[in-house]
Amino acid sequence: MSINPFLAVTTNKPSLALVSSPYQLLGAIEFQLDINQLFDLHVVFTAMPGSTNEKQIYELLETFKISHVKKLYLNNSGSLRQRIESYAKVVSTLRMDYESILLGDIRHHWMQDIACSLDAKNYVMVDDGAAVLSIYQHILSQQGFYLPVELFPESSVSRQEQAQIIKIDCGLTIRRRKLGIYSLFKIPSPFYFKRHSFNNVLKVLGHVRQHQCENEIHFIGTHFVELKLLSESDYFSYLKKVRSMFSADVNIVYFAHRGENISQKRPQLAKIGFELREISYPYEMFLMQTEKLPHRLIGFYTTCLFNVKAIFADTITINCIKLKNEQLQSFKEAIWMQECFTLYDQVISIYEQLDREEITTLF
Description:
globular; Rossmann fold; 2 domains; 37% helix; six-stranded parallel β-sheet; alpha/beta; single chain; 15 strands; disordered N terminus; seven-stranded parallel β-sheet
């Protein structure tokens, strides 16, 4: 762990979190509790109306009593001007200076543009799950630790110039900003880095007397099927293998990813012997507050495994299912919000962390 003197903290200004997922918001909350003596966090977020994503964000806002909140409704299908206008208009409703501006995922143009148009003492990227590893390796370490970063290097110069003209016309005054990192993973920025393990969130939630249940295993689901990265048959073949590893008296509880179509999967989960448990906030928070801990946690490549390892150390055995090489090939075609790396690159960067964090693999 190291802290650079770049980070300057006083107590008379709020911080601003720009987020698009509950996990990003949880990281921003941990940062504010950890670094700033005054817990005054303003939040701007975007989420699909009625989605699990949105519900979990609102649950966190209520739990931590965050009242300065603005929800963005992004226009993702309109013209370039319409898309920029959909988020640029919020800037005039915000303060012009903050203690820190926290970005959940710099692959979102709206986060970069809003952050770079406002003044703050510190600009910090908090975790967006394990994607932060690839963002560090393929974007920040290549382009330097400054915002804004270029997400589409191959895009035409004329389109970039057009976007800049529109942004200025919409009142965005984008300036270069130093970017620090606040992460579960050790990925230092030359300006500021600190590694965390949600200790401060745990303190706020309060101590719960916990005991381990030897006959219960938790399984973290994922949305491979919904993203068409794996067939339903291949996905459930992994789950069947997991079920066959343990005796019938061991209860395997399935926690769905917020992107899963769980109503479609529910019958098959029951058929192979998984109990489905639905929660309204991130799994890590559920685990912090439950009295009964599982003796084992299993999942595919998910930050949740690393989070639980950091929070509970060796109390819970953690296993990561590694996909077959031939199945990973389809991930090479999946590009998420930028052209600097593929989903395959992201998965490999996560696999490289498993040994370092002492997380064992299955299959």
